[in-house]
Amino acid sequence: ALVEQTGVTYPTAQDPDAAVITALGGSVLPTTVLLGADGEILATRHGEMDADELRSMISDELGIAA
Fold first, then answer.
1. pLDDT, tens digit, for every residue of 21-54?
2. Considering just the CA atoms, what is the radius of gyration of the chain in Å?
3. C-alpha–C-alpha distance, residues 35 and 13, integer Å
């Protein structure tokens, strides 16, 4: 229902027992986690982010101009 309400168009998954979010260090929604190619957690951000904050996180942690 939340996906429909928010208009999200990207792939999503369910985590009903919170196992994945807990393993990734998340405790609130939204939580943004950047993973390296090897699966290592590079950065975790809890709470809302605007587009500029997300671009900065990607640039800082992954060295990619977003």
1. 888 888 888 889 998 999 899 999 999 999 999 9
2. 13
3. 17
The pTM of the full predicted model, rounded to 2 decimals, is 0.70
Evaluate whether 29 touches 47 at the Cβ level (below 8 Å).
no
Peptide bond before 11: cis, by omega within 30 degrees of 0? no
* H or E element at residue 53: helix 51-62
Give the separation between CA 29 and CA 44, rounded to whole angstroms: 12
Closest CA to 25 of 50, 42, 9: 42
HEC states along the chain? CHHHHHCCCCCCCCCCCCHHHHHCCCCCCCEEEEECCCCCEEEEEECCCCHHHHHHHHHHHHCCCC
Q: How far is CA 3 from the centre of its chain?
A: 15
